[in-house]
Amino acid sequence: MDILFVRELKVDTRIGIYDWEREVKQTVLIDLDIAADVRAAAQTDKVESAINYQTICQRLVAHISASEVELVETLAEQIADIIRSEFGAVWVQVTVHKPAAVRGTRDVGVRIERGNRLP
Ligand SMILES: Nc1nc2c(c(=O)[nH]1)N=C([C@H](O)[C@@H](O)CO)CN2
Fold it and tell me: Measuring from atom 6 of ligand 1, which residue has the nearest CA?
């Protein structure tokens, strides 16, 4: 199976479990790996035959910038749902990074996989 990918989609959002985190926006970075059969797109050379990664990014920026969840897990699950239900992906891996959220670390976050990756 082929993979479409997005690295480090940067979005400011309200996220976190602490009172101070409900008052500010923080930056999250999103990585996506999306299973896709890209042969039709390659043969036609038309984006209409592809899963459009720009459209996905625009949809996710709209969703994430308006969201107010507490956990990175919740955000990752919502992102996977959007990509599968609205863009027809059969399998997706979503990584949500919350850089510098924990003192002494460069990065924390979560990575999930949803759906069935075809051979
Ligand atoms: N499993 C998780 N643990 C923690 C989360 C989270 O989203 N998932 N969040 C926090 C805080 O909001 C942290 O990011 C800020 O200091 C702590 N643990």
Answer: 71
